[in-house]
Automatic annotation (TrEMBL):
Residues 223-329 form the TRNA-binding domain. The keyword Transcription regulation does not apply. Residues 136-162, 169-216 have a biased composition (Basic and acidic residues). Keywords: Cytoplasm, Protein biosynthesis, RNA-binding, tRNA-binding. Residues 134-222 are annotated as: Disordered. It is found in: Cytoplasm. This is Nucleic acid-binding protein. Residues 1-132 form the GST C-terminal domain. CDD domains: GST_C_AaRS_like, tRNA_bind_EMAP-II_like. One of its GO terms (cellular component) is methionyl glutamyl tRNA synthetase complex. GO terms for biological process: translation. The keyword tRNA-binding applies.
Length: 395
């Protein structure tokens, strides 16, 4: 089905909303594959089932890993789904939309786009702004999945009988060794067996490996691979209600729990218009911190001009083709895994940070202060960059 055929199925004024908000040709898909997906989603919106509350569970699951419906950019499909959802979302109470965080986040993001708002205002009151009380939304804990228990294969009868019998004590086994050695080798063999028995008894008394305390995952010298860097996408941003110099952002890192709240002190350095809808690199394993009453769950990685903040600050940008949640790593440390959370007392980030810089090519990198080896910061799609600065400090 073509996009135009799908648009023709939309009822008015939803069709007018879509055609009014999606005026750029790329809004209908940048490739033939994307165009087909856009048409498919518009057709779903026209049929109406996808936007019914009884089907929110399936839609929630579909939206959890996505910022937009098709690829990683805004399309007419997003306008169509937003318009189809509007009658239902506008009637929900907080407890109801809190139970569908991905749908709420997606809907609020799309309705905030300037082109959507402009088209919606011309069709008022059909698509009026829906306000969500996100400040009081219940906190969603990010819990790691428990390790799966391996099922043991059923034992044969012989093995079962053997397992049912009590295991011989180390002492008995040692005596058996001793007796066997005495019969075979005489006195000399007996002495050798005694030594063997003593070793066996000592081994039996040693604590099992599982009982030994494991080494801390952040043991040893700090290395950059301990830092968890990921590609993020700003889906919402506003100024901090109690701090003139802070932004409060909702950044999508591709997590099932939805976007993270992040507080950044960038108001005086980067205009809010240049922050909206930006893809960036985030530090995701810092300990959450309260910033003037708002808890921040990550940090935006920025490049500061070599002459200081007054000379400029800009976002470190991931390479084209990166997707939210993509791992950002250091060349030479590809196989290393970041820590689950940095311990503030060990100052790992503070120890590594002085080596963060931008090269002559504007590429972000960590330079080992001792060996002077250069480790570029990158994703599988390419190197991360600071578009304007050379020799900048990253933090």
């Amino acid at each position: 089905m073509s996009v135009q055929a799908a648009l023709a199925k939309l009822p008015s004024p939803l069709r007018d909303l879509v055609t009014g908000a999606a005026q750029d040709g790329s809004d209908f898909g940048k490739s033939e594959k994307d165009k087909a997906e856009v048409a498919e989603w518009i057709d779903k919106a026209a049929q109406g089932d996808v936007a019914k509350p009884e089907n929110f569970k399936d839609l929630e699951a579909a939206l959890v890993p996505r910022t937009y419906l098709v690829s990683n950019y805004f399309t007419a499909a997003d306008v169509a789904l937003y318009g189809a959802l509007h009658p239902s979302l506008s009637q929900l109470q907080p407890a109801q939309y809190y139970s569908h965080p991905a749908i709420t986040r997606y809907f609020d993001h799309v309705q905030s786009r300037p082109s959507v708002r402009k088209a919606a205002e011309s069709l008022a009151p059909a698509f009026s702004v829906v306000s969500f009380d996100l400040e009081n939304a219940p906190h969603q804990e990010r819990k790691a999945e428990p390790p799966k228990k391996k099922e043991k294969a059923p034992a044969s009868k012989a093995e079962g009988d053997k397992a049912a019998a009590p295991a011989p004590k180390a002492e008995k086994a040692a005596k058996a060794d001793k007796a066997a050695a005495k019969e075979q080798k005489g006195e000399q063999g007996e002495k050798a067996a005694e030594g063997k028995a003593q070793k066996k008894e000592k081994k039996a008394k040693e604590p099992k490996a599982a009982e030994k305390k494991p080494a801390a995952e952040d043991a040893g010298e700090p290395v950059p691979s301990m830092i968890d860097l990921r590609v993020g996408h700003i889906v919402d941003i506003k100024k901090h209600p109690d701090a003139d110099g802070l932004y409060v952002e909702q950044i999508d890192f591709g997590e099932e729990t939805g976007p993270r709240t992040v507080v950044s002190g960038l108001v005086h350095y980067i205009p809010i218009e240049e922050m909206r809808d930006k893809y960036l690199v985030g530090v995701c394993n810092l300990k959450p911190a309260n910033m003037r009453g708002v808890k921040s769950f990550a940090m935006v990685l920025c490049a500061t001009h070599k002459d200081g903040k007054d000379a400029g600050i800009e976002l470190v940008q991931p390479p084209a083709g990166s997707k939210v949640g993509d791992r950002v790593y250091f060349e030479g440390f590809e196989d290393s895994q970041p820590l689950s959370q940095l311990n503030p007392k060990k100052k790992i980030f503070e120890t590594i940070q002085p080596g963060f810089t931008t090269l002559e090519t504007h590429e972000a990198a960590w330079v080992n202060p001792e060996t002077k080896s250069v480790h570029k910061i990158r994703t599988q799609a390419g190197e991360c960059v600071a578009p304007k600065f050379v020799g900048a400090s990253l933090s």
